[in-house]
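Reopening this one. Same input as before:
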Amino acid sequence: MLIEKIYLYEGREDITLTTYIVAEQGELAEVKPRPAVLICPGGGYFNCSDREAEPVALQFAALGYHAFVLRYSTYTEGNPKLPEFPIKIKENLVHPAPVRDIGKAMLYIHENAKNWNVDTERIAVCGFSAGGHNSAMYGVYWDKPLLTDYFKVDKEMLKPAAMILGYPLTDYVFMKSVRDTTMDAMNREFFDQSNRAFIGENNSSNEILEKVSPARLVSESTPPAFIWATAGDTLVPVQHSLRMAHALADKNIPFELHIFEEGDHGLSVATQAAAIAKSQINIDAAQWTALAGKWLDKRFTLELPDMTPFEAMMASQKK
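Same output, byte for byte:
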């Protein structure tokens, strides 16, 4: 496996793309270009969680996909510690910087696709929590001026083939409406400061919030989605996943939705591979990686010759 950290912008060490490239050596050298998954960890737009980075990438690499982890613009500029509240705004890090970082990463993968043996027509964006929001934002904006005019490229260079969204925040208008009725004081404070880190202001108008609510922006060009969440999530209510699924259904966009009954926010792969507490291990929710793999197989299956295992072994020995 080729693991390399790449700095996407000169002079910035906080925006990085880490590769987990399946090594195409020996018997695998003849495999055609592989699909890829571009992963956006969560972190409330304060940082990018390590728990939702490499552990997720290794899961997709084990399924035969190239994986990339993007550390996008967040308030703390790469500092893994959460800031003290109330936070101060850093203008170069707020919206639309995070979603444009996905576009920058996508273009970089396209530029290096031949060397990495990446199938550029089959790249999925995958995110969790705030990273799920960022991925969903990319899913609804990839062909819009926010990205196409900014990068001045053909929109096909930015096109995602699919979205994988883990406990994503998808509707800021809804979140604002339930802030005072369903959130405890700690979650309200976290949500308020996260909004400030992402949008750059407090108490945004509904007009602004609608423009950053992917569930309200789904169109015919939005890619298919695999969505999973837990009904027990008290930080990002499950309604966000339901609303995104409803919006996709309204536009006849293919999707698969899995809601697990129990589980806290931020489960990542929900195994000890990404856990720092027992509450982050959940054998039911851990099924999402296998389910997502099956869902991806419908769209991303490698083109392989139809041979028996013995014939494949003999063919590899002749090369």
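So the earlier flakiness isn't reproducible anymore. For the record, Strands lie at 2-7, 16-21, 34-40, 66-71, 118-128, 162-166, 225-230, 255-260.
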